[in-house]
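WP5 quarterly update. Target: Carboxymuconolactone decarboxylase family protein. Source organism: Pasteurella oralis. Length: 112 aa.
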Amino acid sequence: MFADWKNDVSHVRKSFSALGQKYPKMLQAYAALNTAAVENNVLDAKTRELIALAVAVTTRCESCIGIHAAEAVKAGATEEEVAAALATAIAMNAGAAYTYSLRALEAFNDQQ
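Structure tokens (predicted):
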């Protein structure tokens, strides 16, 4: 785990920018995904960041956790809202593990 999330976020942003300067088409494609995600402003920034933070947890992306935690703060999320989003991520991960366990048992039993 990172001891200093603020420095990690700064490092990730600088690294991302440097990679984007070297490979601008990749950065443009990535930016287009983000632009499409916020099109029509159906979700406010705080809701988007709470979702992004929960997804970052389920995908185990520490850099994403840092970035979206910082963006959630900027968007005005409270600790209680973040905890609720994280509880949802935990529940979804447990549910996914449960349903995939059922699939694994099916696969095992089909092999017998």
